[in-house]
Amino acid sequence: PRVQEHIRQENAHAVRSLRPLRNTAKRLYREMLAATAKEQADVPFERHGRYYCARQTSEEAYATLHLCTASGRSCVLNPNRWNIAEFSIGCVQPSPDNRELLYTVDRHGREEYDLLVQPLVDGSQGQTLGRTCHTGVGARACWIGHALSYVRMDGAKRADRVFVGESVIYSEPDEHFEVEHRVTRLGRRIMVHSAS
């Protein structure tokens, strides 16, 4: 009880001592808010001859993906409208023909991603989740031509197999190693990396 009374007295003293600075603190807070960007935007990046950018406003929890054209930008993926409490997006990639968008979503926080694909139509997409193609995949997925490439995990959540479409192109037999994969810049080859 004596300690609590002492803390109350210290807090009251702090309030009295800082009272003359209250207006200054409010003014500084307003200045900091004014200097903070209301919207954050990434530099546009090129994929298959089209430009995309991520944008996020202060009212949004997640960044949105936009297609950038000479006439402006249009939203193609808006996770703020999905009806999921918490999630993590692993990767987002448009197809080589710019007709579909693939992305991976972890809906449960267990680093088990669903691979989803949706039509990539300017302006009207991204409001709902696309169709689920595969579950229990790694965060990274990519297009190799018009096929999907992704990594699957075993029962111990070890990334052990690389797929293209429905075919396994590499399987890591050593349980101490995990696999990763990337597609080359031209999108014609897959690089598989195995490490412990």
Strand order of the largest sheet: 6-7-8-9-10-11-12
Distance between the termini: 55 Å
- Which percent range fits the helix content? 10-25%
Give me the Rg, rounded.
24 Å
Oligomer: single chain
Structure, described:
The chain is of the alpha+beta class and 196 residues long. It has 2 helices and 14 strands. The chain has helices spanning 2-18, 22-35; strands at 39-41, 45-47, 50-57, 64-69, 72-77, 88-94, 100-106, 113-119, 131-144, 147-153, 159-164, 167-171, 178-183, 190-195. The strands form 3 sheets. Strands 6-7-8-9-10-11-12 form a 7-stranded antiparallel beta sheet, with no helix packed on it. Strands 1, 2, 3, 4 and 5 form a 5-stranded antiparallel beta sheet that branches. A two-stranded antiparallel sheet has the order 13-14.
Compact overview of the structure:
This protein is α+β, with helices and mostly antiparallel strands and 196 residues long.
Keywords:
seven-stranded antiparallel β-sheet, 196 residues, alpha+beta, five-stranded antiparallel β-sheet
Write the layout of secondary structure elements.
Blueprint: H1 2-18, H2 22-35, E1 39-41, E2 45-47, E3 50-57, E4 64-69, E5 72-77, E6 88-94, E7 100-106, E8 113-119, E9 131-144, E10 147-153, E11 159-164, E12 167-171, E13 178-183, E14 190-195
Antiparallel strand pairs: 1-3, 2-3, 3-4, 4-5, 6-7, 7-8, 8-9, 9-10, 10-11, 11-12, 13-14
